[in-house]
Amino acid sequence: MARVTLESVARHASVSTQTVSNVINAPHRVRPETLARVQAAIKELNYRPNQASRTLRTRRSRLIGARIEPVRDGVNGAVLAQFLQSLTARTQEAGYRIVVFTATDDDHECSLYEQLLDDHDLDAFVLHATHAGDRRTEWLTERRVPFVTFGRPWGAEPGAAERHGWVDVDGAQGTLAATRHLIETGHQRIAFLGWPEGLEVGDDRRGGWSTLLAVSGIDAPPGYDAGVPDGLDTGRKAAAAMLDLPTPPTAIVCASDSLALGAWTEITARGLRPGADVAVVGFDDSPTAGVVGLSSVAQPYDEAAAACLRMLQELLATPEPPAVPPAPVLLPPRLVVRASG
Fold it and tell me: Which alpha helices (DSSP H) does the chain contain, by range?
């Protein structure tokens, strides 16, 4: 069988070779209908761009760095793995490769950026677990290294200009949807089990719960808002304290599946039934949630990965960083209702 070339794809899709090249290297420049037609031709013909030639032509390694997290509790880490799996699949389809690494903190991660850039000439990085005063984004910006973040730049002044491209999921919308569902199913005593105040993602998720309760005229008595480190054991202890209240909640909205599974464990240990006696809703829709029947807020990891890749391709299409970073993307989550509520 004759080797499939760029010209073969162009003829099959009835476009120019430059258009095919743009689809591969800078898809944001191509109209959606043309992009879909050329991508279909690439798939149908099983076209594989010559990586060596492309690297010489573009002076790009087509390598993207991303940090991985250890799996804790059988849940934490597995959640981020879903995003990285989608990112790996998306980048691979576009002719890139993900280089993964681990780091203990921001400073360690920055030192690894320098090492990876020196040793492997990475094109860009995808960051996650953003937070106020994030040293990593400063380090990369100062050195004009392309990057995007899965997570918004917490701590920025309201109305301030965006400093880099980011993709995030609207956590407040997720917990608001969970709380609304519980109200619609008859619950009035709804507690929130989250992380200590000051953790930006946790505060965002707490905000959806508290806002809807206030709008709905529902009180949250003392003890109904708990903030503990993430984990099964901490979630169980916090749920126990809630269930020991004189008027315990009939439903608990949680900032993570780890906390929700801890609450689930305490509920069942008391001979109660999650969903029937005390409703529990988690956040992240981890694989464990699907196995045990835990209702949870699902994050659109594949959409987030696709948006991150589009931003990176836009950044890598020009030799210099753009004057204005790619527009941020805030994605809506989805409530997955199961037996627990």
Answer: 6-13, 17-25, 32-45, 51-58, 78-93, 106-120, 135-142, 171-184, 200-216, 232-243, 257-269, 287-292, 301-316
DSSP assignment of 165-209: EEEEE-HHHHHHHHHHHHHHTT---EEEEEPPTT-HHHHHHHHHH
Tokens coding 185: 């199913």
- CA–CA separation, 125 and 106 (whole Å): 14
CATH number of 6-50: 1.10.260.40
Give the per-residue pLDDT at 160: 81
Q: For the whole model, what pTM was predicted?
A: 0.81
Phi then psi for 183, rounded to 5 degrees? -65, -45
Residue 115 burial class via C-beta count within 10 angstroms: exposed 0-12, middle 13-18, buried 19 and up? exposed
Q: What is the pLDDT of residues 114-143, one digit of tens each?
A: 999 988 889 999 999 999 999 999 999 999
Specify the pLDDT at position 77. Answer: 67
Indicate whether 29 pLDDT > 80: no
Cα gap 117→139, rounded to integer Å:
13
The residue extents of the domains of the chain are 6-50, 60-169+303-332, 171-298
Amino acid at site 234 = T
> Quick check: do 60-169+303-332 and 171-298 share a fold?
yes
Instruction: Judge whether 66 and 98 are in contact, CB under 8 Å.
Output: yes
Q: Does domain 171-298 have CATH number 1.10.510.10?
A: no
Beta-bridge mates of residue 124? 64
Q: Which two tokens stand for residue 282?
A: 């988690």
> Residue 126: enclosing H or E segment and its boundaries?
strand 124-128
Residue 316 identity? L
The domain defined by 60-169+303-332 carries CATH number 3.40.50.2300:
yes
Neighbour-count burial for 133-153, b at 16+ CB within 10 Å, e otherwise: ebebbebbeeeebbbbbbbbb
Q: How far apart are the first and last CA of the chain?
A: 56
DSSP assignment of 178-189: HHHHHHHTT---
The closest alpha carbon to 156, from 305, 331, 333, 325, belongs to 325
